Amino acid sequence: MRTIDHHIAGDPPAYTRFAHVFDPNTGAVQARVPLGTAETLETAVAAARRAQPGWAATNPQRRARVMFRFRELVEAQIDDLARLLSAEHGKVLADSRGDIQRGLEVIEFACGIPHAMKGEYTQGAGPGIDVYSMRVPLGIGAGITPFNFPAMIPMWMFGIAIACGNAFILKPSERDPSVPVRLAEILREAGAPEGILQVVHGDREMVEAILDHPEIAAVSFVGSTEVAQHVYARGTAAGKRVQAMGGAKNHGIVMPDADLDQVVADLVGAAFGSAGERCMALPVVVPVGAATAEALRERLVPAIHGLRIGISTDAEAHYGPVVNAAHRERIERYIQMGVDEGAELVVDGRGFTLQGHEDGFFIGPSFLDHVKPHMRSYQEEIFGPVLQMVRADSFEEALRLPSDHPYGNGVAIFTRNGHAAREFAHRVNVGMVGINVPIPVPVAYHTFGGWKRSAFGDINQHGPEGVRFWTRIKTVTQRWPDGTPDGSNAFVIPTMG
Predict the structure, then answer these.
(1) Per-domain boundaries in the chain
(2) Do 251-435 and 18-246+454-476 have the same topology in CATH?
């Protein structure tokens, strides 16, 4: 059986435990991945320790050139990478290419690191005194990334961390680890020194080794809220800088004046695209007023029935299988939970099979109406192709739903009314807001991050916040006395002797 090895600058200890990597389209095991230990991590840290000082001393223009070259190499191989990603994750090729492209946009931002790392300068802060600041790398950073975006989220993390002069150790999901390993190989081809980007595989044992290691200065995490909270608590207790992004339950508010045809097109893509396996999916729609709800439902149901589910290489498919059988079962349990709680199951995606791929991890789209805020199926993240409708009688009620929800990642409002949109954006208690934009992921030169139980830590990902997270400030206060001790040659310019 094929083994997807660690990417470490050194010889890791012998493997004793492995995890299976499935083909979600067929349900078959296609590879195995070694689950590393604290000893595995120690090998990677030792290599990072050797490589990082020289990389930090490399001027930022040269570091940027490596990122430029990396971008070129990834873009040239994007189709091969997308096929590799889809084969392990299950998302359709168009989604896989999008996954890679959104990661590359952060790499493009990292190419501007000479400007992004500039400090500040004050001349004459006191008599003959100048003050300036500089951004310096932290040393060794680590990233722990989820299965749903095996290219984008690692590049969000390591692109900026490495451009800032850090070494980086990536622990990707063991469910789809091949693309992260390939990205590390490509960065090496682009000119990064050995040891600057390494990939270690593992489960909880590896995560906790990363959180406890004294030489890892910062950890970036994306995953479930429960694990994010644990990562943040344990990492900060160990003295690390930590950003831990958790789950989400994003809402789409539909005002009576919205263009319902456009709303339906946006909802179908945002709720069911990538099989709903993304933290910026839109799994809750909130129509304002009974007339809006009925009109929206009338349009939504045939659109949902029209979705095509297929294997990841099917160019006509709207989405493919979910990542594994356990996740499919979890989604189905949430659908049944909604029914048991009293919601109306309008479209039931359970029991879907694809001819010729009966053992694949497929699930059809589901739609539940008359969902109530007290229901557990509403309060918790489902992370699958399930859309829930929560009806609101007024704008104020619709505003309260996402504002009062435990998660605060993203929200969208659909309206033609500029005042309503402005009022909503200012008052809603959520970190990222879309106005007639169903998936409001900021562009790479802004920053990504939610509120409440969607994020732990006070520094967001990528953009200027990413530079801030992966560096620290050193401030220098300087005074140059007039002249030499004997009072002569007060303004002699030093020369190379």
Answers:
(1) 18-246+454-476, 251-435
(2) no
User: What average pLDDT does the structure give for the chain?
Assistant: 95
111 is a catalytic site residue = no
pLDDT in tens, 35-57: 999 999 999 999 999 999 999 99
**Dist CA 469 CA 465 (whole Å):** 6
Q: Which two tokens stand for residue 224?
A: 């479930």
pLDDT digits (tens, 9 = 90+) for 128-148: 899 999 999 999 999 999 999
Q: Find all residues with CB under 8 Å of 83, minimum gap 6, and list them.
A: 93, 96, 313
**DSSP per-residue string spanning 230-288:** HHHHHHHHTT-EEEEE-----EEEE-TTS-HHHHHHHHHHHHHGGGG-STT---EEEEB
Residues whose CB falls within 8 Å of the CB of residue 14, separated by 6 or more in sequence, listed in order: none
In 3D space, the residue among 323, 317, 355 whose CA is nearest the CA of residue 85 turns out to be 323
| Angle of helix 178-189 versus helix 60-76 axis, rounded to 10 | 130
DSSP one-letter string for 314-329 = -TT-SB---S-HHHHH
The helix/strand/coil state of 127 is: coil
How many helices (H) does the chain have, and how many strands (E)?
16, 20
Domain 18-246+454-476 falls under CATH 3.40.605.10 = yes
Q: CATH top-level class for 251-435? A: alpha beta
Q: What is the pLDDT of residues 308-345, one digit of tens each?
A: 999 999 999 999 999 999 999 999 999 999 999 999 99
Structure token digits, residue 188? 């090496």
Reduce the secondary structure of 371-408 to three states and give it as a string.
CCCCCHHHHCCCCCCEEEECCECCHHHHHHHHHHCCEE
Q: Mean per-residue pLDDT for 160-180?
A: 98
Say whether pLDDT at 69 is over 90.
yes
User: Pick the catalytic residue: 74, 84, 106, 279?
Assistant: 279
Strands 121-126 and 129-137: antiparallel
Amino acid at 128: G
**Helix (H) or strand (E) run with residue 345 in it:** strand 344-347
Contact 472, 459 (CB under 8 A): no
CA max distance for the chain:
93
**pLDDT tier at 495, thresholds 50, 70, 90:** low
